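User: For this week's homework, look closely at the record that follows, marking any run of repeated tokens, and judge whether sequence predicts the tokens.
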Amino acid sequence: MIGKIIVALLVPFALAAGLSRFSMNIWVGMIATLGIMMAAFNGPYQPLPVVLTGVVSGLAGTYVGYLWLKGKSITK
């Protein structure tokens, strides 16, 4: 259970932040992270604390991705 919580803390954060930075769009990063986590880690069948930890971690990663993209322009 502790291992699942650690994975739920790290993986969604890194995926959301990295995909947001790569795609230059926070929404793409957040939706892709949600899809990957649900498909790869069998999200709906995990215990509730693991799911909630993953959601909070994904939101934090999306916020970090937003901070990375703040002030950047694609057409510069």
About this structure: The chain has one domain: 2-51+64-69. The CA atoms of residues 29 and 49 lie 23 Å apart.
